[in-house]
């Protein structure tokens, strides 16, 4: 199994200390977090996209470019790019530029997003989100691969013999399809024969498994081999301690704070408590052994090769503690237990030597970085 650390750049008062970082401090925290993830052997670092409080992640390509300049090998993801509301011309330009500046380490996860506040900001209705996503993605693929593109559609003005520059540094930027709530996203991924990344954050396993199973069925329909399907999955939040009881006690204030935000209320979690989520949901809170056991249980259902985790909202000391403990006590076991064909070779080219963060000694498990051959 491979591992991605990601952030939605959520900035709220800390549930334990009451302190809140300034915007500048939060951005610096994210860059430092990504640097630490690289040094500890994570395979990828991701930035989500949100357009409203409490998130500061409105411009993932800008933030990922800052991270690219401070790292050398770790892959850079969008988790996700809300392509349903964005201009494909702008997306093509921004992310091809990032691909060059990162030396070919960029991979995109596209989706319609799960926060309805962005639709009125960008001039579409929530009902249009799926059609908009499909149309914009088809255009984006052409803009990255063709010259003199002539195109007409519903969600942006027509193009007449347009060549968008720069073209990506990689021969083809790998694209994953975010999957959270509808078979329309898995249908789009299957049509193109591209991998999916299950949100796996807010609901019981059965909901996400049904979408992943649908993806495999539809891959076969479109002439792709479902046995070669590539799936990634999230895991909700992470909190490790020596015992399950200690982890629950330490994490409970954070859980309560996260679930009182407007964005969390929109997701309408079916879980009635932290204990309910632990028993029936994807959250990873407990001892290292119990977290490994839970991840293996979800892998049996999903067959995913990549796992993403987040430490959003914790104090900076706890962020470091959790990232280090996961890298040392959880990741090495899962790397051995679960084979992964994803990122099996280095990225195209590293370009910047990352400065030392001097973290605690990193695990002896595999180093970050590898080529993304993601087509099924």
Automatic annotation (TrEMBL):
Extent of Low complexity compositional bias: 355-366
Query: Could you tell me which InterPro entries the record lists for this protein?
Result: Bact_Lucif_Oxidored, Luciferase-like_dom, Luciferase-like_sf
Start and end residues of each stretch annotated as Disordered: 351-376
Short name of one Pfam family: Bac_luciferase
Q: Where is the Luciferase-like domain?
A: 11-304
> Which keywords accompany this UniProt record?
Monooxygenase, Oxidoreductase
Q: Does the keyword Transport apply?
A: no
PANTHER family named in the record: BLR5498 PROTEIN (PTHR30137:SF8), LUCIFERASE-LIKE MONOOXYGENASE (PTHR30137)
Q: What is this protein called?
A: LLM class flavin-dependent oxidoreductase
Species this chain originates from: Paenibacillus aestuarii
Q: What is the lineage of its organism?
A: Bacteria, Bacillati, Bacillota, Bacilli, Bacillales
